[in-house]
Amino acid sequence: MKRIFVSLFLLSSLLLAQRTPLEAADYAKVTSHAELSGFINAIADTSKLIKSEVFARSVDGKELYAVYFSKGEFGKDKSKIKVLIFCQQHGNEQSGKEGALLLTRELLKPENAYLFDKIDFALVPQMNPDGSEKNSRRNGNSMDLNRNHLIITEPETIGLHDLFDKYLFEVTMDVHEYYPYGETWKNFGYRSNNDIEAGVTTNCNISKKIRALSKKEYLPFLKKYLNEGGISYCEYSPGGPPEKDYIRHSTFDINDGRQSLGVQNTFSFIQEGMNGKDILIDNIEHRTKGQMLGMRALLEYTYANKDKIKNLVAGERKKLITGKVSRKVAIQMDHFPDGSKLQLPLLSYYSNKDTIIAVNNYRPVVKPLVEVDRPAGYLIPKNLTELVTWADRHKLQYHDYRNSDGSVFEQYMIAGIDSMDFEGDITVNPYVQVKKFKKELPGGPYIFIPVKQLKGTLIITALEPKSELGLVTYKKYEHLLKKGELFPVIRVIK
Ligand SMILES: [Zn+2]
Fold it and tell me: What's the 477 CA to ligand 1 centre distance in angstroms?
């Protein structure tokens, strides 16, 4: 009798210990970084299925945790598929973190262990602890982490890409919140009211097959899964309001989490839970459940389609590595209509009821405006250390360049610098003249970055001076563009 009592006591205290900090606070306050650390460390001790690791530290020195779920050594069993979900890059979007902690607890239930017969899963509950503690969007350097995935200057994004590069996850998701209560929408009379919105990769350089599987199969699966769990859903559809501006399916810029991993032909997503209206804890229990179910849906879909996704990603990545991929790379693109109208679910401010608005100015298709031929690679003068550091942070393969007979080079003369509209923002758009030459290279020495590698399309997008997503569009690299001078990065044609 005494033994039964003791084991019941142990069981209940174990379950109590596994309540998330948000649950323990009865949903009255969001989880602090200290509470998150305590929860992860405590729960990691309760099961052989999980391990936690500090994979990076924030600007202010706070731990960034990865929680690894695996029935074995993580990443070792090549027959398994690797999934990475990371949350709360924006510190004022709290429910992703809360959903991740709840998911951790859920996944440790014995009835969910089957998932890890096929999946090795890494979960980063909180990318931006410094922002989270102040409930502000940016990190400790006042940088927007989700605009930092191309230049990767921040310790948080450097850490995440190190983690990705180490395991080359086939499936990834970046978890956020969207804020539907803006003034322009209020004036329009409607706002979004979906618990969860999710977006696929849209950059047109990313594998068409991966984009199609994401949109045509995963999103419908997600909708059904969420609706069955009492969570409303719509595809992530920023822009608008409908009479003012067009609606699209998010940016194609590769500086965000989803596209920066997507451009490496990853099955990659963004999930956006609805933010609170006035206070942090508005509806937080439901928001947390929605985020958790959305993350869980990705695991369930991946489990059910493991071989299909794994084979597709492996094949499409091999094309990047061997160069058997589209000869053209889009460096300027835009959103276009396809003749369809979007049936957008919205909440009416007048009736306080959900309704459907047909959006005429709907642009779901991303098409190229300016393309370049995929070169053999690029030469970067070694004295441009900011570019060499950038290549190192992305772990690009490169080597010292030795001039060889028969090579053909192209260099851009920057004839003028104009500007252009990019998704409603203004960015640089230089006029360039291409100079072709053989043999004599100006200056030197150089490193040679071949584009036949996993990050090949990322390299081209970053290094072309006319790329609207390129490095020259960032303050840190704008000095590379000088009117009347040669662009210092040289294209090697063969
Ligand atoms: Zn966000």
Answer: 25
